Amino acid sequence: MTERRATTTGTGGTRPPWWWPAWRAARPWLVRAGIAAATVMAYFLLPLDHLGPQRPVLSWLLFALVLTFVAVMLLRQIRHVLLDRPETRPGVVIPLLIILSVHVFSAAYYALAKQPGEFTGLRTRVDALYFTVVTLATVGYGDITPRGQAARIVTVLQIAYSFVFLTAAATALTTRARDMVVRRTERDRPG
């Protein structure tokens, strides 16, 4: 916990230090950035080389469990927005879940690339992350190509997952942001 030192005003009250408003405004963004950075670091540091053809059942099980967890959490956040629960923070949770889903697919592609004949051009974790983002953005440069059936299935799954869950999550974020702007405008309107 950070120590908050107050200064005394002439009226007997306390005033926070000069840096306190900036810290309060920046803190949520720093937490989000820290969690996002931890997700990226975990992707590059986890022993993904032990997955793939060496342990196919474990690989598929982990992929299904983590992807299901992310989908359930996204649906929960979307539901909170649709029910207009003001105590929820979809602007914090949804972007982090989207980052997590990108890294889940990247890990799956990286593990699949260990199997001969599944991918052409995918050799590193950066390649897998790049392919995931390119697929998510529907760009498709063609430098990395899914050749095997498992790689194509996961690619189709990512496209469907992105279309359903990530589009709904982005819509929920947009809806919440629009509602907040409307509420602030109504609150600040002279009455």
UniProtKB/TrEMBL annotation:
The keyword Amino-acid biosynthesis does not apply. Residues 98-176 form the Potassium channel domain. Pfam families: Ion_trans_2. GO terms for biological process: monoatomic ion transmembrane transport. The keyword Transport applies. It comes from the Bacteria. Coiled coil: none annotated. Keywords: Ion channel, Ion transport, Membrane, Transmembrane, Transmembrane helix, Transport. The chain crosses the membrane at residues 29-46, 58-78, 90-112, 153-174. InterPro entries: K_chnl_dom. This is Potassium channel family protein. It comes from Streptomyces thinghirensis.
